[in-house]
Amino acid sequence: MLRSYKKTSLSLILCFVLLITTACSSTEKATSPKTAGKLITNDSVPYVGFLLDTLEEERWYKDKQLFEEHIKSLGGQVKTLAANGHDAVQLKQAQLLIEEGVDVLVVVPHNAEEAAKIVELAHENKVKVISYDRLITKSDLDYYISFDNEKVGVLQATEIVKNTSQGKFAYIGGAETDNNAILFRKGAMSVLQPLIDKGDITLIADQYTDEWKPENAEKNMKEALKKSNNQVDAVVAANDGTAGGVISALGTVGLAGKIPVSGQDAELNGIKRIVDGTQTMTVYKPINVIATQAAEMAFKVAKGENPKTDTTINNNKIEVPTILLEPTAVTKETIDSTVVKDGYLSKEDIYGK
Q: Which Pfam families match (predicted)?
């Protein structure tokens, strides 16, 4: 009976993984048993696997589309899978792509440390790994491409301080399991700490947000408001999702639109809140730039070439060859000259005209 139970449990787990894999795949045709390996059996065609943490956030659809389009334009083939926040599923998806014969894996890790298992598995099968946007830590990672994430935090805090440089501040960060969230906070604190030391500002909250979920950010902000008797003068929120949760919490005590709140990712809802005046700024990280440069890097690696990088980042094990891109602060005054000008968002979407 025990052996039968284990078999049943294993079958259910595999079915769950395969269900997610099938639902999130960008490939129109599944590989048949007769053509196991690459989806295109010509070995000269580079095959790139793209592993996303999630497709539950708006921005990742853009990354997926742009990355896939550029790989195909270069003459390669690509399959994208999303684990939707499940580490075990992401590892299994990596295994499936490796078995299909990918030449390189490009990974947006859900958990920076857990994803080291993906790197280990890939290297055992002579497949290189590129960490996309989020750094895979404690691993022999081959390459990393992202934006200057400490600068993201600097931009967020700087814009907030421009609006108010005294009083009670709250820092509502991202997921602590995401190395980027740690870097965002580090950058923000490089701006805030001198003001804290001078006594100009007091932090009433300094809280990471589990899974980056807006509802968790809202909960954290409500707790901060309760502890401070609803006294808060500014909030540095790590991205547009957490900013949305913060603003919802502020709305319950009549403070939405009355104090500055930062964001990041230039999501449509975040930009709309900037227009409406409930969010002060966001950070624009041109997804077309990172997606196309990552695609070019992956294509070269898949062909056995060594792509050019401009720096290294320590991932708590090695110095990883890295490309860092420049982020841009976006305020109400610069929406048209940034996200609209680049075609990232349209005026019609933003302003409803």
A: Peripla_BP_4
